[in-house]
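I'll show a sample.
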Amino acid sequence: MITTEQQRQNLEANVFATCLLIPEESIRKDLNNLDMSSDKEYKALCNKYQVPLGVMAFRISLLKRK
C-alpha cells in the first residue's frame, strides 16, 4: 500500500520532471502563440517537447495554479 508520504514524493517527482521537460518560459511563449482550441495544437506541443498528452496537460495545469 502506498503511504501519504510516498504519494507526496511521487507528486513532487512528477512535478520536477514535468518542469524539467517543459520549461515554464518556453511553454508560456508557445501557449501565447498558438490557438489552443483544437487537439491539433496540443499534439503539436507534445511533439515539440516529446511528451505524452497527459504530461502536457499536467504541465498546463501547473501553470494555471500560479
Summary: The chain has one domain: 4-65. The mean pLDDT is 92.
